[in-house]
């Protein structure tokens, strides 16, 4: 890995200046934090994935467009499925879908979403969404996921009420947020997507909520190794 910094790129994370990372890799013409200065973490970790590729589609033919790109289509709104290449396909309503890149694929410099976009032109009544720029993406990993979120969110996100494959469109710390329960390297985690304008505030709120559980910022390489 080369010694690069976010400041070397025109494209940067919404919270890049808050990160304590001391190692980055180049991803999609930007710098992705892969190792934090606080890598020794107890029970939970928070990673910034805002620079990973994502896109979305909305319209009557959005589901057909995903199928033409060999992507799975969740059966109902507020569900997520994982593609054969590890992308997360979110169904936020009957006609709206978001696609989040596989962090492992991005780590290797592979961007399957670029291929999806290049090879498939949306059909009529299927319109692209620009969630890459409108929303930040954070990954909460390790133990105590629901307990951490309970300090910020009134919705029950325990495993019984919110199993893997579920999505909650709710509010956390008074910020509108999409919470996605999925697995990363076979471990349960929450992806959180919020308006880019609120990214710094939500990042600070999450770190504060995690202190009780020994949680800290971690790079993506350590996100699946949190105890």
Can you offer a commentary on this structure?
The protein has 227 residues and is α+β, with helices and mostly antiparallel strands. The protein is 20% helix and 33% strand. The protein is built from 7 helices and 13 strands. The protein has helices at residues 62-68, 103-107, 112-119, 131-134, 145-150, 199-210, 220-223; strands at 21-27, 30-36, 44-48, 54-58, 79-82, 88-91, 96-100, 127-129, 135-142, 167-172, 175-184, 187-195, 216-217. Strands 10-11-12-9-3-13 form a 6-stranded mixed beta sheet. It has a 5-stranded antiparallel beta sheet with strand order 5-6-7-4-8, with helices on one face. Strands 1-2 form a two-stranded antiparallel ribbon. A hairpin with a 2-residue loop joins strand 11 (175-184) and strand 12. The radius of gyration is 17 Å and the shape is globular. The model has no long low-confidence stretch (mean pLDDT 88).
Mean pLDDT: 88
The SS-based structural class is alpha+beta
Topology order in helix (H) and strand (E) letters: EEEEHEEEHHEHEHEEEHEH
Number of strands: 13
Taken from the alpha-carbon principal axes, the silhouette is globular
Main sheet summary: 6 strands, mixed
Report the total helices.
Answer: 7
Sheet with most strands: strand arrangement? 10-11-12-9-3-13
Computed Rg: 17 Å
Helix content: 10-25%
| Poorly predicted parts | none
User: What is the CA–CA distance across the termini?
Assistant: 25 Å
How much β-strand is present in the residues? Answer: 25-35%
């Amino acid at each position: 890995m080369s010694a690069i910094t976010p400041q070397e790129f025109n494209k940067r994370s919404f919270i890049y200046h808050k990160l304590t990372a001391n190692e980055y890799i180049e991803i999609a013409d930007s710098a992705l934090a892969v190792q934090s200065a606080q890598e020794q973490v107890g029970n939970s970790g928070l990673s910034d994935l805002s620079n990973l590729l994502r896109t979305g589609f909305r319209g009557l033919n959005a589901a057909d467009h995903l199928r033409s790109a060999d992507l799975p289509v969740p059966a109902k709104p507020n569900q997520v499925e994982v593609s054969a290449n590890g992308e997360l396909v979110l169904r936020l309503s009957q006609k709206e879908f978001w696609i989040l890149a596989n962090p492992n694929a991005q780590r290797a410099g592979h961007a399957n979403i670029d291929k999806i976009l290049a090879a498939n032109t949306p059909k009529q009544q299927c319109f692209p969404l620009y969630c890459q720029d409108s929303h930040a993406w954070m990954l909460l990993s390790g133990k105590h996921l629901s307990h951490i979120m309970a300090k910020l969110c009134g919705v029950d996100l325990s495993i019984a009420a919110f199993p893997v494959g579920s999505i909650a469109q709710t509010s956390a710390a008074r910020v509108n947020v999409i919470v996605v329960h999925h697995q990363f390297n076979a471990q349960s985690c929450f992806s959180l997507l919020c308006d880019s304008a609120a990214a710094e505030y939500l990042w600070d709120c999450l770190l504060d909520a995690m202190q009780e559980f020994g949680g800290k910022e971690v790079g993506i390489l350590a996100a699946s190794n949190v105890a």
